[in-house]
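Structure first, sequence second, as always.
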């Protein structure tokens, strides 16, 4: 493989700021080359770094990469002596050493890339990596042979070191058959799984041992690395095999390493939270400037500011083209994913035991690309085998510690895509998880309720949960007596998921225990728990039959008390007002004034729902509600401002509210002229009803 000429590299480099790119001799500015002294110091430093490089985690590549370390040790000793040479180097020697520097830099890039990749990907690409290392050895040998050692006046022992390094580079061994045999065995395992052949435990253990995966921690790390590389499209050629290997490793982790807990896993889940303790607050940079919630999918806009994709998309959809934080008019509305920040947020969430995804989408939305997995037969069969193994093991697990580890794996598997959720549900996990909701072990209870939450995303599993004996009562028990706030929060999120089905929404609403526990969470829980409880109440309020029970349970009061903290609260009030709860809302002292305040100062969605709730109150209760609206100072300004800056729906609701108020004012003025005083609060003017 031909090496790039260092002069070509320099010529193609960009011009430094302030320098013209035009020249009489060249169309591009040629930056000055490093001095010979700098060159020798760079060579010595780079050779020293390569000689001290840590071993690769992949055993099958250690021989190839160890050769780089050995050659670098010889070169480091030679360059150490060469660096003491005074004066400039001969031109031929300087050019040759610059080429050597390029080769060593490429050696370093290969070593760094291997250290960052998953072991399985390294195995799949081992022949490509070895070929690249071989070519670099030959290029290094060529440069060392061309080096004019006689002109450099080197000592004999230094010349011997350079000649030895050159000979060793040329004797780089051919590709070892062991790596290719191991690769063939791994691919054979995948093919067997495609044919629904369960891998032999001893064979699987032997192969993973050779790959360097020998405990639960390394297996979990390997799965995470592969999933990250699949998402980043690190190797299109091997993507299908990598997806299959994720499934195989999940199965291996359960079958081979399930008895060994991962020591590096954070343990806040298993600690009983203080009843008043809040989950750790995320760093300010992790919060979306619009919603102040932790960003799930951070994106950068043209101004350079970062927002959560959902929030900024809603901002743009409302007709705005400015940066919310700076007010700057954006030159375009393109959204660029901020992957670095997303990885930092994910790492913080893992370390602090905080779920990164919103509970409405649950952990289930974090998995590998669903379409790719669904199209990969080996991955599907591996997931089916894993689900069957875990459910069978759970059925015979008697100790809380053993059950907790199995349920934790079920929880992880059930967030990996709809196919995995289907396999876990079909294997019969739901009836086995329900009794664990009453466990005194905090970690086991949390894993059980979170597994049910993840499973409930699938429509078929909703039916399995709702028809499982004691499942709804168990979820209600966790909401009231859960050992951690996170368990209570996930139980409320499970209600949100289950209530998405019309018949289940009615059934849950008829369960007074569920309603009362949700109200209690919305009243006393920390911010994230309160948000999920209100979301569940909003789902239940979508059914007219449930509204009376919700009102009797105090949902209107709870929503009003949370209206300045959670944007969902305004939506709950609007849903109640629409389906028969208007009287209960207006009867609460200051309710209308707080809705007007939310219409002015809330988030986009909260302002929209506050306006919708006020319109519904006025239409349902007539002058009784309009009188309270008009009595709020500045309401006209709030309506006018929302008409100009709100979402499309918010502008429509604000316009409707404005028409209602104007008609009431006109009717009031007409009655005043006739000496009749204010309009009768019990009468709804026909014009108001038609608005």
């Amino acid at each position: 493989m031909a090496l790039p000429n260092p002069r070509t590299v320099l010529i193609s480099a960009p011009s430094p700021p302030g320098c013209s790119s035009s020249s009489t001799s060249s169309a591009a500015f040629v930056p000055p080359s490093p001095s010979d002294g700098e060159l020798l110091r760079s060579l010595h430093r780079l050779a020293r770094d390569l000689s001290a490089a840590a071993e690769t985690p992949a055993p099958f590549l250690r021989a190839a990469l160890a050769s780089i370390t050995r050659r670098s040790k010889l070169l480091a000793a030679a360059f150490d002596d060469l660096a003491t040479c005074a004066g400039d180097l001969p031109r031929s020697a300087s050019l040759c050493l610059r080429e050597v520097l390029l080769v060593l830099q490429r050696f370093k890039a290969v070593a760094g890339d291997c250290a960052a990749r998953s072991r399985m990907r390294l195995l799949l690409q081992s022949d490509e990596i070895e070929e690249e290392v071989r070519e670099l050895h030959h290029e290094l040998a060529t440069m060392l042979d061309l080096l004019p050692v006689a002109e450099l006046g080197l000592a004999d022992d230094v010349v011997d070191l350079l000649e030895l390094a050159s000979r060793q580079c040329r004797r780089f061994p051919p590709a070892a058959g062991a790596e290719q045999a191991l690769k063939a065995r791994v691919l054979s395992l995948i093919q067997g799984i495609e044919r629904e052949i369960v891998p032999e435990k001893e064979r699987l253990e032997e192969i993973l041992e050779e790959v360097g995966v020998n405990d639960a921690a390394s297996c979990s790390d390997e799965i995470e690395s592969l999933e990250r590389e699949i998402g980043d499209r690190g190797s299109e050629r091997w993507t299908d095999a990598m997806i299959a290997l994720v499934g195989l490793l999940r199965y291996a982790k359960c079958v081979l390493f399930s008895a060994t807990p991962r020591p590096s896993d954070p343990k806040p889940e298993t600690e009983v939270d203080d009843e008043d303790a809040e989950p750790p607050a995320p760093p300010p940079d992790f919060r979306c400037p619009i919603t102040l919630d932790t960003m799930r999918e951070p994106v950068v806009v043209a101004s350079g500011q970062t927002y959560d994709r959902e929030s900024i998309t809603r901002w743009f959809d409302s007709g705005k083209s400015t940066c919310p934080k700076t007010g700057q008019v954006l030159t375009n509305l393109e959204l660029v994913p901020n992957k670095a920040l997303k990885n930092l947020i994910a790492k913080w969430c893992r370390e602090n035991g905080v779920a990164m995804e919103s509970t409405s989408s649950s952990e289930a939305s974090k998995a590998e690309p669903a379409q790719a997995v669904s199209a990969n037969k080996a991955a599907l069969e591996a997931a089916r085998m894993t689900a069957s193994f875990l459910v069978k093991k759970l059925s015979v697990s008697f100790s809380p510690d053993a059950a907790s580890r199995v349920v934790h794996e079920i929880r992880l598997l059930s967030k990996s895509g709809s196919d995995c959720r289907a396999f876990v549900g079909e294997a019969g996990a739901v009836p086995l998880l329900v009794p664990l909701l009453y466990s005194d072990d905090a970690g086991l209870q949390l894993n059980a309720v979170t597994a049910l939450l993840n499973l409930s995303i699938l429509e078929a599993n909703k039916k399995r949960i709702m028809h499982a004996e004691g499942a709804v009562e168990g979820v209600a028990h966790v909401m009231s007596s859960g050992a951690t706030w996170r368990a209570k929060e996930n139980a409320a999120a499970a209600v949100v998921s289950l209530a998405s089905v019309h018949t289940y929404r009615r059934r849950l609403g008829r369960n007074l225990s569920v309603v009362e526990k949700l109200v209690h969470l919305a009243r006393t829980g920390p911010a994230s728990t309160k948000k999920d409880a209100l979301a569940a109440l909003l789902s239940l309020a979508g059914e007219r039959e449930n509204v009376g029970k919700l009102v009797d349970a105090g949902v209107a009061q709870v929503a009003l008390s949370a209206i300045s903290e959670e944007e969902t609260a305004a939506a709950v009030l609007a849903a109640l007002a629409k389906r028969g709860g208007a009287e209960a809302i207006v009867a609460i002292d200051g309710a209308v004034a707080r809705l007007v305040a939310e219409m002015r100062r809330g988030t986009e969605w909260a302002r929209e729902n506050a306006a919708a709730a006020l319109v519904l109150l006025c239409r349902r209760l007539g002058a009784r509600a309009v009188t309270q609206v008009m009595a709020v100072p500045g309401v006209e300004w709030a309506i006018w401002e929302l008409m100009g800056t709100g979402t499309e729906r918010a502008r429509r609701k604000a316009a409707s509210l404005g028409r209602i108020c104007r008609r009431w004012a006109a009717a009031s003025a007409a009655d005043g002229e006739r000496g009749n005083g204010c309009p009768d609060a019990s009468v709804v003017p026909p014009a108001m009803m038609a608005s």
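Margin note: The radius of gyration is 34 Å.
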